[in-house]
Amino acid sequence: MSLDKFFNQSLSRWMDGTGSENTVVISSRMRLARNLGDYPFPGRAEPKQLDEVVQQVRRWWNIGGLEALGSVNFMAIKELSPSERQALVDKHLVSPALARHQQGAVLTNQEESVSIMINEEDHLRIQALLPGLQLDEAWRMASLVDDQFDGSFRYAWSPQQGFLTSCPTNVGTGMRASVMLHLPGLSLTGQLGNILATVTKLGIVVRGLFGEGSEAQGNLYQISNQITLGQSEDEIIEALNRLTLQIIGEELKARELLKQRDPDGLSDRVWRAYGILAHSRRISSREAMELISALRLGLDLKLIKGIPPRILNELIVFIRPGYLQKVFDRELQAEVRDSYRAQLIRERIKISESGGDTNV
Amino acid sequence: MSLDKFFNQSLSRWMDGTGSENTVVISSRMRLARNLGDYPFPGRAEPKQLDEVVQQVRRWWNIGGLEALGSVNFMAIKELSPSERQALVDKHLVSPALARHQQGAVLTNQEESVSIMINEEDHLRIQALLPGLQLDEAWRMASLVDDQFDGSFRYAWSPQQGFLTSCPTNVGTGMRASVMLHLPGLSLTGQLGNILATVTKLGIVVRGLFGEGSEAQGNLYQISNQITLGQSEDEIIEALNRLTLQIIGEELKARELLKQRDPDGLSDRVWRAYGILAHSRRISSREAMELISALRLGLDLKLIKGIPPRILNELIVFIRPGYLQKVFDRELQAEVRDSYRAQLIRERIKISESGGDTNV
User: Residue B118 needs a FRET pair 20 to 30 A away by CA distance; which of A127, A276, B146, B330 works?
Assistant: First the structure.
């Protein structure tokens, strides 16, 4: 079975491995929570009212309300198969909550760098998602979408509080800025716990790869601002940017330390990860994430060559259970999933292997 | 560093992967203990007397006493470097005891299928070592050498007891026949303990790869006759042969069971072993033996192709600490040895890999 076509179609912009500081920062995300003043917040609205919100946005989209974004896709959640919904979650385009919502919908642009969730916790959740560290650009993109809506809809907004949201933690700017960081160096040198504890004290939230409540796998951590009230958008972005650069500095120092302390041991870790990923016939999501983390570290440190970082960004999405079911177009039991996952990883790493293993 | 030249030179006949039943039987060995009637047994002889034994054999060899074997090599232990001695042990051509013996010597034919230890526990230990199950042929070869000596030397022999030896367990035929078996199927299905216990009750000795007192690694077991008195050579050989064929039958049944029970799991085990062996940068002898065992099982079951069994037989010798030191021609610390071992395995598996991984 060749998955090339699928792979070529499914790439989201944030996975493409480019962007500033891309050896540590996988992606940057800007999310704006907005509500329409003419309807109750989603938690208090009738299904009929929520449907109306969706229909209003849909009509507006139909007549070109979002044409500044180029070609935009509209998807009503209830019209999607379970595996299509899960794939949207795995690609970080919708939240797990929206994927379960009968009155939910989502708009995405062609490169999937912008997604707009309708009827999640708020009527609108405008999200811009880019590779590497580029919070400013993500803010610019989210802002552009925000302006389009603002020109056609009346937002729930008060001069004292700013944007009104379902949850008080979002009131004010309605903004959550976040970056996804790959921190194997800090993890392997045992410094991660301390750093994350410090970060938390500075009003920054640390989460695993798949948002709130999710466990950190593959040394991937999402950090985001906690405060939305009393700070301007620019201040929020600047604070998160500054902190991110500090963490990047610590991470790169830790990687150097690992290289100096035991170069052979590090190389062994990286190559074993490659050997298993390129050859296993059954692999759990957790083990795959750990090995992908080691392989990525090896690529960043040039201990191994020939695998574009893009491949690994895609893999952390593609190996998720929901995504696998979409790829193979059927419900899969856990053990079968582990076999399919291994197949997918092998094909993916093989495609890009040419020359990868010559540097022995 | 290319090790090709070394590899091509160092192959012993028993490693060549041929012979009957070679998916289970690595090698067959016949050993005859003999003593010269004119000298005390080695344990009671003066160094001067032991030197005389060596000189007598050496002179006889010099004038063509062993020309029936073709070109034969004579090596005095004290003239060898420590790593050369260890390499002889690793190739199963001399015992660890002989390798430490100042008055010891060894004769080997060109293909190293015959070795004759001088002044080990007995004056002469004639050994024939062949790939696969071929005890009869090994007996024929050892017998031929025995006849050559018998024509020129007076053996310590009594009509009542037969050949006299240092240790009473060898008196009579002086023969020890053994086969080295690879039993991953019985091990993985948990049947090995029972089978080995039964075998032991039948008067058969079970040992690890490197003889007496050595631990079984890589699912390799040597089984040999315990009794040397009151049975003819042919009876000893026949009994061992029959038992070996029974064990082979059980082992092959166990492998089939593994294949049926969980084909993906078995395939995964095999391919992971390959992935790690072909890519690791540091590996212990124990781990390497385990993985080589899994890889060999995969080759035998045709789950993986393109690696000749010969390569794996050689590797179980080449990865020994002493052998590594000979290959790289220096004393190596344990950690460095693990790196060199990994390098050696990678080069060896790579040489033979062409086409090996195409069957994905």
Answer: B330
CA distance B184 to B294: 7
Are A134 and A194 in the same domain? Answer: yes
**pLDDT of B232 above 50:** yes
Q: A50 lies in which domain range?
A: 13-254
* Residue B4 placed within a domain: no
Residue A360 is assigned to a structural domain of this protein: no
* ipTM of the complex, rounded to two decimals: 0.85
Residues of A in contact with B278 (CB under 8 A): 275, 279
Is A276 close to B276, i.e. CB distance below 8 A? yes
Instruction: List the 97-156 stretch of B: residues with Cβ below 8 A of A.
Output: none
Q: Are residues A110 and A59 in the same domain?
A: yes
Same domain, B154 and B204: yes
Please give the angle made by the CA atoms of B160, B163 and B169, to the nearest 5 degrees. Answer: 95
A123 and A84 part of one domain: yes
pTM: 0.87
Q: Is A358 on the interface with B (CB under 8 A)?
A: no
B286 and chain A in contact, CB less than 8 A: no
Q: Are residues A250 and A275 in the same domain?
A: no
pLDDT digits (tens, 9 = 90+) for B244-270: 999 999 999 999 999 999 999 999 999
Chain B residues in contact with A279 by the CB 8 A cut-off are 271-272, 274-275, 278, 357
Q: What is the CATH number of the domain that holds B74?
A: 3.30.590.10
All residues of chain A having their beta carbon less than 8 Å from the beta carbon of residue B360 are 346-347, 350
Question: By three-state DSSP, how is residue B29 classified?
Answer: strand
Do both B105 and B247 map to the same domain? yes
Residues 6+ apart with CB under 8 A from A336: none
List of residues 6+ apart from A73 with CB closer than 8 A:
A107, A108, A109, A110
A277 chain-B contacts, CB cut-off 8 A: 275
Contact between B132 and B142 under an 8 Å Cβ cutoff? The reply is no
Q: For residue A333, what pLDDT is reported?
A: 85
Question: Of chain B residues 316-335, which have a CB less than 8 A from chain A?
Answer: 335
**Which residue ranges of chain A lie beneath pLDDT 50?**
1-7, 351, 353-360
- pLDDT top residue among B9 and A156: A156
Residues A253-264: tens digit of each pLDDT? 999 999 999 999
B228, B169 Cβ separation under 8 angstroms:
yes
Q: Is residue A44 included in any domain, yes or no?
A: yes
What pLDDT is attached to residue B341? 94
